[in-house]
Amino acid sequence: MAEAAAPPSIVVALLFFLYITTNRPPFLVVEATWCVVRSDASDQAMLAGLNYACAAGADCVPIQSSGLCYLPNTIQAHASYAYNSYYQRRGSDPAACYFSGTATIAKTDPSYGSCVYPSSPSTAGGSVAPGGTSVPGTTPATSATLPPPGTTTAPLYGGRGLTPDMGSAVPDSPKSNASPELSIKAILFPVYFFILSFTF
């Protein structure tokens, strides 16, 4: 005797239950984002943000003198890498990409040459626990200083990487929310399955 398949309405109900319990649509793909320095940020503000990010658990080893992201040796380049590391280790939380208004979220990968910017917590080499302390297995915090005058170099990579196209959306508070596009998809997902349940 053949087994009967579950009615479509039960399948839809189970998918809806899965959505509610995971708080994320099971088929929604989230686009990668990076946290980078705003082009209008002052050196002093970037330095303060760089020091904070490194002290709060960002992986700052790649921007040390022997690291793959040391060159170009500019505060903007080093701060962008540190900001992004901190942001990724905080689970790409938009509130972790503020740094007193000196940072913005970019949808263009700022990586260049052999310097690869992490694009997710799993590629950021660890995570940051609540309160800003590094989780075991992550790199130690470091402190940055401004390079001596005349020793900084301009970006060598044709404008790509350090100042990616950031779009018009600039977070203006540490409580920035996720993109409206993601929110709309998250709302419409259960509505779609609700409507689909009546078609069977």
UniProtKB/TrEMBL annotation:
Regions of compositional bias (Low complexity) in chain numbering: 136-156
UniProtKB keywords: Cell membrane, Disulfide bond, Glycoprotein, GPI-anchor, Lipoprotein, Membrane, Signal
Domain of life the protein comes from: Eukaryota
Annotated compartments: Cell membrane
Organism of derivation: Abeliophyllum distichum
Protein name from the UniProt record: Carbohydrate-binding X8 domain superfamily protein
Keyword Ubl conjugation: no
Entries under Gene3D superfamilies matching the protein: 1.20.58.1040
